[in-house]
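[audit] Reproducing an earlier prediction to check determinism. Same input, same settings, fresh worker. If the C-alpha cells differ from the archived copy the diff job will pick it up downstream; this log only records the rerun itself.
[audit] input (1225 residues):
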Amino acid sequence: MTYYTSFLPWSLLSSTFCLLTLGEPVFAQIVPDNSLGNEQSVVTSVNSQLEQITGGATRGSALFHSFLEFNINEGNAAYFVNPIAIETIFSRVTGNNPSEILGTLGVLGEADLYLINPNGILFGPNAQLDIKGSFVASTANSLVLPNGIDFSATNPQTPPLLEIDADVSIGLVFEGGPPGDIVNAGSLAVGEDLQLVAGNLDLQGELVAGNNLVLLAEDTVKIRDSEVEPFSAVAGSNFLVQGNQGIDILALNHPQAAFQSGGNLIMMSDGIISGDARFISGGNFLLLNLAGEPGEFVSYYDPIISSVGDVVLGDYTGVALKIESMGSIQTGDITITGPDTILADGSDPDIDILKSSPALIIRAGLEELQNAPTVYWNDFTGNVSSEWSSQKTNITPEGNRSFLGQLDNSSTVSLQLSDLPAHNQATISFDLFIIRSWDGNEPDIWELSIPGGPKLLRTTFSNVDFPVPSSPKPQSYPSQYSPASITNQPARTGTVENNSLGYNFFFGSIQQRKAVDSVYHFSFPFAHSDSSLQFDFSASKSRAPISDESWGLDNVNVSVEPVAPSDLIPSLSNPNLTFPGSVSPGTITTGRISTPGGPIILEATSDITTNGLIRSQGGDIDISNRSGDINLRANIISDGGEITLNSREEILVAAGVTVDATNQSGKGDGGDINITGRSLLMNEEARFRTRVIGNNQGGSINVATSESFTILGSASVNSDSSGLFATNDGSGAPGKIVVKTPELLLQGRARIITSTFAGGDAGEIMIDVARLRVEDGARISALTSVPVAIPGDGKGGELTVIASELVEVRGTSDDEILPSAISTGSLRNGDAGNLTIDTPRLFVLDGGVVNTSTLEAGKGGNLTIQNARLVEVSGASKNGRIASTISTDTTGRDPAGNLTINTDRLVVRDGGIVSASTLGKGEGGDLIVNAPVIELRGSGSNGFASGLYAQAFAGGNGGELIVNTQGLTIQDSARITVSASQTPNIQTDQILRLLNAFPGISSPTIPNQVTGNAGNIRVTADSILLNNQGAIIAQTESSEGGNIDLFVSCLLLLRNNSQISTTAGTAQAGGNGGNITIDAPKGFIIAFPGEDSDITANAFEGNGGRVNISTQAIFGLEFRDRTTSLSDITASSEQGLAGEVNINLTVETEPEQGLTSQPNEPVEVELIEGCQIGRGRESAQYSYIGEGGSGETADTPVSPWLPLPNSEPDSESAASGETGNLVRC
C-alpha cells in the first residue's frame, strides 16, 4: 500500500497488513548505518544530554539520513542540523528494533522531517518535538520520492545522484510483513504539519500542528487519556483521523475540546468510528467511510461536535448527542441510548438537558458556536510556553495541582497570542488561586485587563473566619462574591463548590479540608477581532507587599468566536466526498432518530430534511429554522412529549407521514403539537395526531402560519385520510385543535377532526382565518361516538370558524359518496358540540355540507352563522344525490340543535337546502333566519326543491321555522316547509350518507310511519314574493299540519301556481289542517286569478284548519269551499269538518270598488308611506298594469307579472343570474 502526502490527507492505493506490537525497550542511542556509504549520517554528542545529527546524502533540497537504531533517552535531546537550502530531511531506521523517543527530537532550522521505522515508534510521556516545519513519523517500509525513487528502510540503498524536489507529494509504502505501530504519550507540537502513519496508532498526551494534523492507521486509531494527563489534538488547518478498520476514541478529561482544527476535521474508517470526546472544527466536520460516504459513528459517554463549516456523518448510536454548526448538518440514522452522564458541571450551555435525558440537539447555521474553537490552553503540567512573560510554576499544597505562580501581589504576568483566526468575539476563562491569604486593613487588588482595551476584572479580597478552629489561615474571596449568601458563599464553601472543574483540596486531616486554598473559576467574553491579543494579570496593594499572600493561574483557556463560513476555510481535494444531493449553508438532513425519552432538538438557519423515523419515548421534539423549509419525509413520534415545528418558510409534510404526540403507554398525558411557519403543506395521507388513552390529558394541535395552510387528501376511497386528528379514547381531558392562518385549504380526503370514542369529551376546534376552503370531500368535524356500554356522556367538541373574508364548502369526493363538510355530530351517545361560523361570506356549493347532527342518543349541536353579508347555498353533486346543505338534523331519539343564520342576504338556489329536520324520535331543531334579503330559487338536477326546511320524517315533531326579513323571494319550485312526511327524499338520503362516512357507524332505518307533527312557520317581512310554484308549506301526510304565521308590512304576492299551505293528510290519511295567519294590516295580498296560486288549510280525514287574514286589500284570490284551477283560499276537509276563513280588510272601502273596473290608462295607487322591500328607500307604490298596458273591465284577464327592477346585487356573491324580481312597494 502506498500513501502520498504533501501534508494534506492522502489517497489510499493498495496493500495488506497485520498488527505488530512494540517489543521490549531498547536502550541503544542513535546509531547510523552504512547504507549511505561516504554520505552516512554522523551523530555528535554536544553534552551528556544533547546530540546533533549531521552528514547524510544531499540531493537538491532534500537531505537523507539512515540509522540502524534511533532512540532518545528521557531527559535527552537530539537535533538534526539543517544545512542551507535543505527543505526536507528524510530519515529511516533499517535495524530490527522500534524507535523510542523519550526526550526531545528537533531540527535546527526550518526544514521538514520524516522519520520511518517499520518496526514501530514510541513517544514516551516526556517526549517532545522542537520542529518549526513539518514532521512525519511512519512505520512504512519506504518513501516513494519523485520520479519513482524509493527510499526504503527494509531494502536500504543509496539515493541516486538526482536532484529531488521534495515539494511534491511523497509516498509512504507499506509492503511485506506487518507494519509496526506508533505509540504516543508525550507532547508532540510542530510549527507546520504533523503526520503519524502506522499499522495501528495508540495515542495519549498532546498533538499540536500549526498547519495540518494527520493520524492514519491501516488498522485502528486508538486514543485514550486520564484525569492526570488529558489528551489534546489541535490542528491549525485540516485534521484527519483515519483508521481503515476502526477508530476508538475515549478522551473525556480535557476541560475544553480534545479535538480541534482550524480547517476541516475528518474521521474516516470502514469500521466503527467510536468518538467519546468533544470535537471543534474550524471548517467542515466529516465522519466518512473510505469511499467518502457518511460513516458509522458510536459514542458511549460524551460526544459534542461543534463546527464552523458543514457536518456530515452516517448512522449514530450512543448517548445524548449535541451537534452545532455554522454551516449545514447531514446525518444518517441516530439512536440515542441514554443521557450523557460524563459531562462536567457548567462545561456546556446544554449540560442540564444532556446529563438528565437521552437528548439529541442539532443546530445548524448558527451565527456563533456555543463551544468556540480554543486558540490557547494551558494547564501548566508541562512547559509554560513562550506566550507567557513568566515561566514560574508551582504546585498546590496537598492537591499536587500545577499552576502558574507562586507570584506576589506586586507582579504582572502577560499572555500574548498572535495569528488568531478570523473572529468577532473572544473569551478567556481561568482558575485563580489566592494562597494563604491575609488582607489586613488594606485592600488587595487583583486585575485582569487588555492593554488598550477593557478591564475584564478588578476586585479586592477579603476573608471570613473558617468554621474549623485549627485552620491556620482564613480563606479569601473576591469582592464579587457574598460570604453572607447561603447559596453562593465561596469563602465558606471552598473550592469544591467554587471550582467548576471539581478539584478537592486538603490541609492536614479530612476535618480541615477546604481550609487553605481558594480557587475561583472566571470566564469573560468580550468583543475582539484583531489577529493578536494580550492579557495582563496583575495584583497589587496600596502599601508594602504582604509576604504570606500570593496568587497563581491554572487552566487558562482562550477561545474565539469565528466568523460565518467563507471561502477562506480550507477545503479537501482528497478524498472525494459523496453526498446525497447538494446542500446549502445552515441545513440539517437526518435519517432515523430514536431516543428512549430525551428531547430531540433540530435547529437550523436553512432547510431541515428528515428522511427517517424520529421517535422520542416521552421527550420533546423541537424542529425549527430561521429560513428555508422544513421537509418531513418520515414519521415523528414523541410518545407524550411535545412536538414543535417552527419555520419562517414552508413546512412540507410528505405523503403518508404521521406526526404523533400520543402517550402510547396510557400512563401519562399526551403531548402538544405546535406548528408555526410561513406556510404548511400536508400531502396525501399525512397526519398530525394526538390521542387520550386512559384518564389522562390529551395533547392539542396548534397551527399558526403567516400565509397559508393546505391539506391535500387522496382522491381514492381506499386511502387513509390526511390532516389533523385529536382523539379521546379515554376519560381524560381532551386536546383541542387551533388553526390560525390567512388561507386554509382542505382537498379530497383531508380532515381536521376532534373526536371521542369513550367517556371523555372531544376537544374543541378553533379555526381563525381570512379564507377557508373545504373541497372535494374534505371535512372539518368535531364528533362524539360513545358506545352505550361505556360510562360517561362523552360530549362532542365545539367547532368555531372565524373567517374575515370567506368560507367556501364545495363539492364531494370523486366517487360522489362523501360531501365536503364542516360539521359537529353525535354518532352514538353523547351530545354533539355547537358549530359557529363567523364570516362575511359563506358559500356552500355543489354538494357541500355545513351541519350539526345526532345519530342515536345524543343531542344535536346548535349551528350559528353570524356577521355575514352573504350566505349562499347552491347546487348539488354531479350525480344529484347530495344537495348543498346547511342543517341541524337528528336521526336519533334526542332533539336536533337549532340553526340560526344572521346575514344581510341569504341565497338558496338550484337544489340547495337549509334544514333543521328530524328523521327519528327526537324533536327537530328550530330554524331561524335573520336577513334583509332572502332568495329561494329553483331546484336541483335531481328535482329536489331549494328552500328552508324544518321537517319531521318519523316520530319526532318538526321544529319552528322563523324568518325575519325585508324581502323574501320564493320562486321556481323553491319552498319554505315544516312538513311531516314518511317518504325519504334526497335530504334524508344525504344525511344518512354523511353519517355513514364514519367508521363503525350504521345508519338508522327511517320508519315507515310518521307520527311526528309538522312544525310551525313564522315569517316577518316587508314583502313576500312567491312565483312559479314557490311555496310556504306546513303540510303532513298523516299527522297534524303545522301553522304558518306571516307578518307582512307591505306586499304578499303569489304568482304562477304558488301556494301557502298547512294541509294535513296529503297521503289521504288523518291529521287536522294547520292554521294560516296572514297579518298585513297596512299591506296588500295579490295573486292572479287564473294562475292557480292558493292559500289552503285543508285536511283529508281530519278537520280543515283556520285561515285568518288581515290586510288592506286582496287582489286575484277568492275564498272557495275547495281548491280549483283558479287562485283559491280554502280550509276544507274531504271527510272531516271544514275549517274557517276569516278576512279582515283594514281599508274602509268596498272591495268591489277596486275589482269591478279598471281604467284603460294605468292608475298609480299611493300606498302607505314606508312600505318598502329589499334595499330600496323610495316611498311604497303599486302600479296596476293591464293586458298590453290596458284593462277593460274586472273580467279582462291581466297580463303576466312583469319583472320589476332587481334589488341591488351583492358584488361579492358567487351566485349567478338575477337576484330576484322584488317589488318595491
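[audit] rerun output stored. Observation attached for the diff report: The chain has five helices and 99 strands.
[audit] end
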